[in-house]
Amino acid sequence: MAPSAAQRIVIENCAIATVDAGDTEYASGYLVLAGNRIESVGAGRAPAGLENVVRRIDASGHLATPGLVNTHHHFYQWITRGLATDHNLFNWLVALYPTWARIDERMTYAAAQGSLAMMARGGVTTAMDHHYVFPHGSGDLSGSIIRAAAEMGVRFTLARGSMDRSVKDGGLPPDFAVETLEGALAATEETVKQHHDASFDAMTQVAVAPCSPFSVSTELLRQGAELARRLGVRLHTHGSETVEEEKFCHELFGMGPTDYFESTGWLGEDVWMAHCVHMNDSDIAAFARTGTGVAHCPSSNARLAAGIARVPDMLAAGVPVGLGVDGTASNESGELHTELRNALLINRLGTHREAALNARQALRLGTHGGARVLGRADQIGSLEPGKLADVVLWRMDTLAHASIADPVTALVFGAAAPVTASFVNGEQIVDNGRLVTVDEDAIARSTREEAQRLARIAAQG
Length: 461
What we know:
This protein is α/β, with parallel strands linked by helices. The protein has helices spanning 89-100, 105-120, 141-152, 181-195, 218-231, 243-253, 257-263, 281-290, 298-303, 311-317, 337-347, 359-373, 407-413, 440-459; strands at residues 8-17, 25-34, 37-43, 53-58, 62-66, 68-69, 124-131, 155-162, 204-210, 235-239, 271-275, 293-296, 321-323, 391-395, 419-424, 427-431, 434-435. The protein folds into two domains: 8-66 and 382-435, Urease, subunit C, domain 1 (Roll); 68-374, Metal-dependent hydrolases (TIM Barrel). Helix content is 35%, strand content 21%. It comes from Streptomyces monashensis.
């Protein structure tokens, strides 16, 4: 808990959705933030006599929720948005890998700033980036991404990705854009040792994250899992995203993706996978049995015509599920709060129809579900005393939402709600919809310039 001498911020008069185990909500309540922790939360006014109160916020007309947790992204894609817009996954990858293979440190830093800024101003307090493209001689890409997150003040997990299967091996990336098995493992280990923080209030963590079954060797998967467990960090990859991946795994390995992952040590409570669209009953049972998590990316899955993930069945089985933006070359908006709505709507197109998800289940996916997937449910993802002070105030009294009586329904079913304030670790990073830690306009300029520079370099071959 926060020390008694900690400076306190008192937030009052707002609706509160705690997303705790009982889905406790208050029509009008308060939050007390003490240092980087939530000290108390409840109905009515805050307790009298609090010491060291440095700020009081009258949050009338607002809904307070835990900060949103993004569980899958590719920041570098911010500078290749709007390309290959009518492609499925494999054709999209073929079209874009020649361009992605030309990224460098300056581009990656600018793209990370753009991706983080768009999420943060939309209520994300914990972000992650699965970065797996490391062209030869491109500089310190991991360090540039971590620096961008630190400057913005967002809690962050870098999933240090890798690929060792290039065109010459039957893969998709150009030969100069992949690493060797030994090089990928060594660089990943160095990134973990240099940047991973295992403490309760860590702002930066690192996961081991070979890209996908069709872009890495079996040995990279197997040894990557061994490396992660030796270092005590989590594992992340893409899984069961398309029917083509299913076919690939059967042809090459004689089994489906889930069985293949299990054979290489890639199921467990320390693992989460992106997409998991094409999962049969036995796949879902295996994830539930092992506690393997899923990053559900509804907009990207629709953009690339991958299909509808069986999220209601996963939740019913006990599979941990969070939400992901995915890379902004397949979800150009780059905003996680729109994924609350899209997850609900798209899943209602599936077999469960109107019973697939409700508003509170969608909010849980984007908060506590994401925290669970990242292995941080004891620290973030709900508004409870002792947890880290990652809190968002959504304005619900404007034209967009004022006539919807239930604020959680308004947040999920309605238009994207304005963020009046967002706190990470007790520090405010958004004020009235604008980032306070970085210059949004400067980021817009730099991302545009780096996108243009990458396009010129790629055109030159």
